[in-house]
UniProtKB/TrEMBL annotation:
<feature type="domain" description="Era-type G">
    <location>
        <begin position="4"/>
        <end position="173"/>
    </location>
</feature>
<keyword id="KW-0690">Ribosome biogenesis</keyword>
<dbReference type="InterPro" id="IPR030388">
    <property type="entry name" value="G_ERA_dom"/>
</dbReference>
<dbReference type="GO" id="GO:0000028">
    <property type="term" value="P:ribosomal small subunit assembly"/>
</dbReference>
<protein>
    <recommendedName>
        <fullName>GTPase Era</fullName>
    </recommendedName>
</protein>
<comment type="similarity">
    <text>Belongs to the TRAFAC class TrmE-Era-EngA-EngB-Septin-like GTPase superfamily. Era GTPase family.</text>
</comment>
<dbReference type="InterPro" id="IPR004044">
    <property type="entry name" value="KH_dom_type_2"/>
</dbReference>
<dbReference type="InterPro" id="IPR006073">
    <property type="entry name" value="GTP-bd"/>
</dbReference>
<keyword id="KW-0547">Nucleotide-binding</keyword>
<dbReference type="InterPro" id="IPR009019">
    <property type="entry name" value="KH_sf_prok-type"/>
</dbReference>
<dbReference type="GO" id="GO:0005886">
    <property type="term" value="C:plasma membrane"/>
</dbReference>
<keyword id="KW-0699">rRNA-binding</keyword>
<dbReference type="Pfam" id="PF07650">
    <property type="entry name" value="KH_2"/>
</dbReference>
<dbReference type="InterPro" id="IPR005662">
    <property type="entry name" value="GTPase_Era-like"/>
</dbReference>
<comment type="subunit">
    <text>Monomer.</text>
</comment>
<keyword id="KW-0694">RNA-binding</keyword>
<feature type="region of interest" description="G4">
    <location>
        <begin position="123"/>
        <end position="126"/>
    </location>
</feature>
Amino acid sequence: MTTRCGFVALIGEPNAGKSTLTNHMVGAKVSIVTHKVQTTRARIRGVAIEGDAQIVFVDTPGLFQPRRRLDRAMVAAAWGGAADADIIVLLIEAHRGITEGVERILEGLGDLPQSRHIALAINKIDRVEAPQLLELTKNLNDRFAFEKTFLISAEKGYGTNDLRAWLAETLPEGPWLYPEDQIADLPMRMIAAEITREKLTLRLHQELPYQLTVETENWEERKDGSARIDQVIYVMRDGHKGIVLGKKGETIKAISKLAREELEEFLGRRIHLFLQIKVRPNWLEESERYSEMGLEFKDGN
Ligand SMILES: Nc1nc2c(ncn2[C@@H]2O[C@H](COP(=O)(O)OP(=O)(O)OP(=O)(O)O)[C@@H](O)[C@H]2O)c(=O)[nH]1
Ligand SMILES: [Mg+2]
């Protein structure tokens, strides 16, 4: 039997639904999702199988005009994911259409090596009417020669079977890269940190989610089958620490409970989660914070 295998990079503006689509395709939550922009910070690999093909989805951070060093590292990681992939799928939000950000991404696509397959997926079609979709499809294809266009809803699962089938038949022939039962390629300590960051992002407001990072410092297996996980939340100011703690520690307690419950479900066993908050005004300039996130820290960014 000939098998197929390769990388499919999902790129697009922040909030386009890349992580939602990754999780839908994999059939499990491997990448965190929130209603806020810039949720994903690094490349997250999720693995799906379709017939004789193993599809390695590469969820990427959203593409936007970067300002901070972290933003630049995120955008670089996203374009890097696209450059390394066999197939690139550009996700566009149906109801937002061709924004300035989309225009910039289309320009960027033109600079990639010619050998890439590049497809368009218009996502969130559950939010618009058919005539609007037809027009958007036409306008986007006038601007870039996409190999295929798919109309999907990553959340509702509309159109995703067609997309999956096309990806499977378009990937190059080759041996599978991962064991059949592997769904993610990210260290467990990082997945655990991401789950906590998701709960923080959902609970905290304004700029705060963008000014913190979470790291798993210690993971201890216990004889009774449970595990103790120690994580640090780095924030930039004393005031932020107070907000994350909340009145009488209520906020951090609620976040910790939600994160622990999700971890227990993901790992199928009891977890003891300990969260500590550290004030680190300069964490955005520390290379170690970037390597913990799976990002490159360069003088340039
Ligand atoms: N209505 C609707 N909402 C969707 C759909 N797909 C994703 N969403 C929502 O869009 C929001 C953003 O989804 P994400 O998957 O986090 O988007 P992303 O592209 O990974 O965003 P970043 O990581 O910030 O770049 C979430 O609230 C999702 O529930 C869809 O098909 N329909
Ligand atoms: Mg994401």
